[in-house]
Every structure is written in structure tokens, then in C-alpha cells.
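Ticket #351: bound-state structure for thymidine-5'-diphosphate.
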Amino acid sequence: MTDTAQSAERHRTDEPGLTILVTGAAGFIGSNFVRAVRRDRPEWQVRVLDCLTYAGDRRRLAGVDVDFIEGDIADPEAARGAVDGASLVVNFAAESHVDRSLLDASDFMRTNVAGAYTIMRAAVDAGVEKFVQVSTDEVYGESRGRAFTERDLLNPRSPYSASKAGGEMQAFAVGVSFGLPVCVTRGVNTVGPWQHPEKAVPLFTINALRDRPLPVYGRGEQRRDRLHVQDHCSAIFTVLERGQPGEVYNISAGNNRDNLTVARAICARLGKPESLIQFVQDRPGHDWDYILDSTRLRELGWAPRYDFQTTLDSTVDWYAANEGWWGPLVEGEFREYYATQYGDRLRKSPP
Ligand code: NAD
Ligand code: TYD
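RESOLUTION: The complex was predicted; output attached.
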């Protein structure tokens, strides 16, 4: 983020004392973003709107100076109250896990489509000067080795990615119909501190730490580009400052690796045997890969700082040192989810 701070062209974000609303900031990427804003723009007022779903956790913001509003982006009154007086908005609030969307997608439609519309419509009425809708690489569907640019057609293949595509459509429509200065970002698979234990890298790490099986879907051949959360946050900040309203920006690191390589690297970092890796029944409709061309964003001056090994090692080390945070999260609601998602898979697959 600090690189972009020197820009002369930035979007009135040099106003001291401005208010930025960050939705979904009790979650993984939003909380990292808020910490970065606090560090790099200490003069800003930071307001958070988050309804604290199973994925939200206020402990991610412990000790961070924010005005926290517990509320739902899909509730027009809460949305209006939260955007009032804000000049910048970044919308991270979402249901974010593909596997959960395959179990029941109703909350995904509500938050990712209707909620996105509601918070954007409130932003129009409040005269917000820049709105960033945080979307995902998954809206393109799988790329099978070819790199997507922002001009490619969307072909979402899971209920999660379809709902995120729906949120994007609302962004374009509210931009055109009501003049909201909105940019959309499409970031790749993100890893780093504070990610929920349901996602692959934390799950594999936590299970390895506890000498439990690492459930790798299929044969572990699907590939993801692992972007460090700090790089994702600096990219969003670049778009907030310099993105053209109405434009989409791909965010990619080029750290593409298959899932088996990732599971092996986690075992190696923790000194655990690879025999903990267990191939289990694949995710239905499992996208093979998402490769993104992020030239448009790089032309705004952004570049990632973390390569694959540094991203993975620093994340694994963070989980090894922070059981005090994730320990309570893998109890309660997560136990039930884990039993539903992995019970049969782990029983049916050979050890
Ligand atoms: P997360 O699941 O960790 O956090 C989501 C947060 O949103 C939680 O704090 C939750 O309480 C809150 N929330 C959910 N529904 C809400 C609602 N209706 N109103 C208010 N708050 C609500 O998600 P994340 O991984 O931090 O992802 C953040 C955003 O980035 C999402 O929009 C996601 O689609 C996108 N994204 C994520 C990744 C990734 O790899 N994690 C990659 C690209 C894009
Ligand atoms: P995930 O972290 O759920 O992110 P996304 O599906 O949004 O990219 O999964 C990353 C990759 O890891 C994906 O290819 C699915 C795979 N995966 C497993 O093999 N086992 C698991 O238990 C999980 C959660 C994911």
C-alpha cells in the first residue's frame, strides 16, 4: 500500500479525516485490509459493517481502532446508516466458501447478490465517491491453462461463483443507472493470517499440526494461484485510489501450484509425514484452475511482493503460532460442518 501513497493522481484519498466504510471486515481479507489502512492512513476514520456470520470474528480486529457496526449489508436501514458520511466504501461482505454453497446456497444469493445491490444503492444516496466491489477469479470459470483478461466472458460454475457474478452485475447496473463510481476487483485464491479454518491452506495446516489427515480432493491436480493477503489488500487499495469507475481489475500473483504440491509443502514446513495426505472424493464441478492476466492493474503501479514459498511458509508459521485464535473456531459450528463435508469422504477413501 505504501508504494501507492506517493501517487499524485490518487482519488481524493489524500483528504485528512475522511471516512471509509469497510464491510465484512470481521472476516479474513477485510480485517487484513482494515489493519493496513490503519497503518498507512492513520488519519482516516474507519467504519466497519459486519453481521458476524459463522465466518465473522471480532477477535480479528482486536486492538484496531474502528467504529464497528453490527449489521447486515442486505438490510436497507443498516446499509443506509453505515454509509452515511462515508466517502469511500470497500465491500468485502460475502458468503465465501464454495463447498458450503454446494450444501445450501440461499445465504449466498441473499448476501452476494441482494446485499451487494442494497449496500451499493445506499452508497448512491449517500454520494459515495468511490466504491470497490470485491469479487473473485471464480466468476470466469476454469481457464484450462489460458489466462483470462477482464474482457473475457463470465462462466461461473458453482453457486458461490454464480452469486459473486450476480453481485458484479448489480455493480455495473448501479454504476450505469445511478452513477455510482464503482470498480470491481477479481482476486485469485488468497492466503495468509486470519483465514477461516474451512479453507484449504488453513485446514491442511491445522490437520497436519494435529496429526490428522489432510483431505485433498480428487488427485490434488487442480491448480490455484496463491496470493498473499497483504498483496490482495494493496491491490484493492490501488484500485480504490486509481481505478477507473466502471472498470474491472484482475488481481493475480502468478503463484500457480496444484493442491497436492501445496499439501506436500505444508507437511514439509511442519516436519510432518506426507502419509497424512489423503485423497478424498472430489468437489462436484471442481474448477481445474483460474489463471488471470493482471496487466491492467499492474499498469496502475501495483505488483505483488510475495512469491509462492514465502506466501505459504509465512502462513503456515502463523497458524502454528496462533492456535489461541483458531482453536476455538474449530469447535462448535465447524465440527458439524466438518462432519458433513468430510465424514463420509474420509471414511470412504483408503487411508
Ligand atoms: P470471509 O468469509 O472470511 O469473511 C466474510 C465476512 O463478511 C465475515 O466477517 C462475515 O461475517 C461478513 N458477512 C457475511 N454476510 C454478511 C452480510 N450480509 N452483511 C454484513 N456482513 C456479512 O471472506 P474473505 O475470504 O475475507 O473474502 C472477502 C471477500 O473477498 C468476499 O467478497 C470474497 O468473495 C472475496 N474473495 C475472496 C477470496 C479468497 O480466497 N478468500 C479470493 C477472491 C475474492
Ligand atoms: P478453497 O480454499 O476452498 O478455495 P477455492 O475453492 O475458493 O479456490 O480450495 C482451494 C483448493 O483446494 C481447491 O482446488 C479445492 C481444494 N481443496 C481440497 O483439496 N480439500 C479441501 O478440504 C478444501 C477445503 C479445498
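RESOLUTION NOTES: The chain has twelve helices and 13 strands.
TICKET STATUS: resolved
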